[in-house]
Amino acid sequence: MIILRVLAAMVIFYLLYRIARWLFLSSAKPAEPIPGGHRPAITEDLVEDPCCHAYLPLSQAYQASIDGKTRYFCSEECYRKFIRKQASP
């Protein structure tokens, strides 16, 4: 007898859960896809800071020409550390 009551309670709770979910989540607006059917491609290159080895977008990098070669740094602080390290033996 107790088993039937437990099963009946479980069925009632499940039905109440489904009804509550239907009431509250059915009004949620589904996400709209991006026009064109695909995500836009990210085309900017990443460069590595030779001092701290962080990767950052080329447009945000601190650029310096060292020994005729363009180097990219995450900040002016890393640039100065790199110059000090190059100057010391």
Any low-confidence stretches, pLDDT <50, length ≥5? none
Q: Write down the secondary-structure element order.
A: HEEEEH
User: What is the CA-based Rg, rounded?
Assistant: 30 Å
Rounded mean pLDDT score: 86
In the CATH hierarchy, the third-tier topology of one domain is known as Ribosomal Protein L24e, Chain: T
Distance between the termini: 88 Å
Strand order of the largest sheet: 1-2
Helix content: 40-55%
Number of helices: 2
The largest β sheet comes out as:
2 strands, antiparallel
The total strand number stands at 4
The portion of residues forming beta strands comes to 15-25%
CATH architecture of one domain: Roll
What class do helices, strands and sheet pairing give? alpha+beta
**Rough shape?**
elongated
